[in-house]
Design goal:
Elements: E1 12-16, H1 24-32, H2 40-53, H3 55-62, H4 64-74, H5 91-100, E2 103-107, E3 113-115, E4 130-136, E5 140-146, H6 157-162, H7 175-190
Parallel strand pairs: 2-4
Antiparallel strand pairs: 1-5, 2-3, 4-5
Helix pairs in contact: 1-2, 2-5, 3-4
Length: about 190
């Protein structure tokens, strides 16, 4: 629990560990999506397809050279992933939210972020899927189950600057919870 922001502790229902073979971020995402964590390769393929399908958009967002590097980091399917092929956050978070049309939280003790889809109109509240992962010990992702109206970390700057107009409403239902998180951090810096 000490690896996650204290403001979230009352809302964390469970933390699920996943295999630590260099694919832990992809295992955690697969598990969050209701897939078996061994479907890590499919997650990688889907994210590569997301980059390829929207080449211009991600080229504008990341720069063409970095978009190519991100693609290459995903394009690995060996037994154990070397460091250069681990999940790269925050950039992979943008791909995940858009590819799977989900709200994704990535909790890191001092740099948590919320990712929203870039190109879709949000579905009705009861159809929205919200998933969460966390980085522990600086090198291992886990799946996090949250409950209640937990405070939400800030939205990724990539979404703010690059979303399509139809996606703007994704943020509306979460404004109060985003403000709760910001208020907590402002108070902790001033206190």
């Amino acid at each position: 629990m000490n690896e996650f922001p204290k403001v979230l502790h009352p809302y964390i229902k469970q933390v699920h560990n996943v295999e630590g073979d260099g694919y832990c971020g992809f295992h955690a995402i697969a598990s969050c999506l209701g897939l078996h964590q061994d479907e890590r390769y499919q997650i990688r393929v889907n994210l590569m397809e997301e980059l390829e399908t929207h080449t211009t958009e991600y080229g504008d967002m990341f720069g063409s050279e970095y978009r190519f590097q991100l693609y290459n980091s995903l394009n690995f399917f060996g037994e154990e992933a070397p460091l250069q092929n681990w999940m790269i956050m925050p950039d992979t978070g943008v791909l995940i939210a858009s590819r799977y049309n989900v709200v994704l939280h990535c909790f890191i003790r001092h740099a948590s972020t919320t990712y929203l889809p870039l190109r879709s109109t949000p579905p009705p509240a009861h159809e929205r899927i919200v998933i969460a992962i966390g980085l522990i010990y600086g090198n291992h992702y886990v799946k996090i189950e949250l409950e209640g109206e937990y405070p939400m970390p800030p939205i990724a700057p990539q979404w703010i600057h690059c979303k399509r107009p139809c996606a703007a409403e994704w943020v509306t239902p979460y404004i109060e919870r985003l403000n709760m998180y910001n208020h907590y951090y402002r108070a902790s810096f001033n206190g």
